[in-house]
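[scheduler] slot 2 assigned
[scheduler] job type: sequence-to-structure, two independent chains
[scheduler] chain ordering preserved from manifest
[runner] begin chain α
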Amino acid sequence: GVARILSHEGGVTDIEVLQAALLHDTVEDTDTTPAELEAKFGPTVARIVEEVTDEKSLPKQERKRLQVEHAPHCSRQAKLVKLADKLYNLRDLNRCTPVGWTAQRVQE
């Protein structure tokens, strides 16, 4: 979804940005390491993915705080991926709200 937003809505054609968009949650959600990404996709894709990767061991509020603090220092490529990911997540909440979530929680 993130790569689709970038390519279809954002007109992004940079293959490394689109690859990073496809892989953006790989380090967070799997046992894949940045070194493995670099070996398969190159240093630029690995760097972009690292820039948008949160430290999952931290509490959610701390991760969000660090995202805001880190955002101005990210590369343009990482900003594109991060913004498209946020947009996708917001749309997904409206499309299929998780069971048990109140309208207030969705709004927050």
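[runner] end chain α
[runner] begin chain β
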Amino acid sequence: MKNPIKKSPIALAILCLLIEEPMHPYRVQQLIKERGKDEVINVRHRTSVYQTIDRLHRDEAIAIQGKKQNEGKPDLIVYEITDEGRKAAYTWLREMLSAPKQEFSEFPAAVSFIVLLTPEDAVKELIKRASAIEDTLAHIDNQFQIATSREIPRLFLLEIEYQRAMAVAELAWIRSIINEIQTKQLHWDKEWLREIAAYLASKEKKST
């Protein structure tokens, strides 16, 4: 039985680019960077694109169209999308747009155990995160300015808009938590945690 084509953001990007035209892996990697897709797709490891292309080829989502000469270097393999790959790309695109997915990122996990730090330490680390998000927003705004100067249509910048909206919302939330901890609207210490632990244990006993 044929294995299903494995879905991932990198795989989606590769298939979508090959829908435009056949190309070799290096060109795929170039376009991902030139179009700013590396801001929303994790391609930090240079081999990620090549490994994903190899997998898509094994899964018959793409096929070798031919080879292109590369000035004294080994020929570049040019890939084209197959009917199966095209079908997968449109299916994934619709699924990713319509169905929220529970993604287990590090930050919510750390927030769930924030009580292990002192309030002062928690504030210190949250201030660092807020500063990092401010830097991210400055970078995003710079991207928008560059795109505007190049007259790139807004339709091709929607992923950057989304990133900015998410960053703005997270920054506002972090700042509110920092303020609540500093003004002691949110406060905890070892004695309070012991009391809460005892209370929750008694509630569990009653429910069993």
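[runner] end chain β
[qc] chain β: The longest helix spans residues 119-149.
[scheduler] slot 2 released
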